[in-house]
What we know:
five-stranded mixed beta barrel, four-stranded antiparallel beta sheet, GMP Synthetase, Chain A, domain 3, 442 residues, 4 domains, 15 helices, alpha+beta
Amino acid sequence: MSCNSCSSDINSVPKGCKSNGSCATGDCEKLSVFDWLGNMSLPTGQDPVNIVEVRFKNGRKHFYKNVDNLQISIGDIIAVEGNPGHDIGTVSLIGELIKVQLKRKGIEIDSEDIKKIYRKATQKDIDVWTASRDKEYDTQFRGREILGRLGLKMKLSDVEYQGDGNKATFYYTAEERVDFRQLIRDFASAFNIRIEMKQVGLRQEAARLGGIGSCGRELCCSTWLTDLRNVNTSAARYQQLSLNPQKLAGQCGKLKCCLNYELDTYLDALKGFPRQDIVLKTEKGDATFIKMDIFKGLLWYTYKENRVKWFKLTLEQVQEIIGLNKNEEVAHSLEEYEADLVEVVKVEFENVVGQDSLTRFDAPKRKKKKNNRNKSKSTQNQQQNPVQNQQKNNRPKRKPPTNQQNDLKAQQKPNPNQQGKKPNRNKKRRPPRKSENDTKTT
């Protein structure tokens, strides 16, 4: 979803509202909820809910009471109660759908923990809020320098200023417990503000910072996933995945949350499969399990003594062998069961449309013969001199000589090999004709 200001111009360059997370339209925010009850009117005699959901930096959301019954709509910037002072946020949800969100998060409507709304943010409040947010990057950089000087084993991942600029929350991750009392004193003296340290997990850190996953899309935890459940290696085993930590780990260093998405489907498909520790007893010996293809219903087994070749069997064949073994019978060899499998015949489609072959440029070009060149020249001459070609075609053709004429010509020619006669090679040759240039020179 996006607002109209995020569209592109004529040159395909994105415009962007440049609000950096404080979009006033309510369409560019992360983890937004569509109010599908917004167009429905309330029953007679029922008062609307006076609780509003407010969004802060990086998708952090809280609920606040509208005590003064202000006219608030989604996308308004309001000033809410802080600790201490006030904070500035954007309204993300109003109406009857608030009850569903409160029930999902386990918060009661009459809870005292729900703070109140002060007013709609004025221009002065917005200016102070934007100025404090501009200082977050420099504060984080200087905070990491102080951490390096103190030598604490913790990572400062993000800094968030309160709307009035009097308080800053430092989010950090650490594997062990850290004594940061001296760190808070150094932060307070360096920044002259109220300091609050908040530890988050690795998954929460990735959700706050965001990023691109190995699938090429934005991280699920930073876009739509709100319930960060634990992921075990058993989820990868059930899906027949190799336990490679480099491929199974996400941006946070933990196992990917998407391993749980299809786990229920795999568990349902594995109900009809036998256990992997079952040994098949055949005529040639015992066979053990190697691997399986769950959705195709294929299993691979091999003999204990000879593990060179793997034999492909169907689920029905394996169940048949297990049934024979339960009745204390030995099944046939795995070679016979594998031979019963029907081979898939590949259908070759005819080239009806006339597509060109992909390997048409691989073969070397053949040299053109001279006959083809002579033919091309003759065709050119015919096109250039059509009158002469017609006269040649109109001439009477000579008849081929008969056999009697050929015999007479052969008798008239002298044969040098007969009667020891030699051909007379001393015949007088005619002198060459003199040209006009020769006569002039003489």
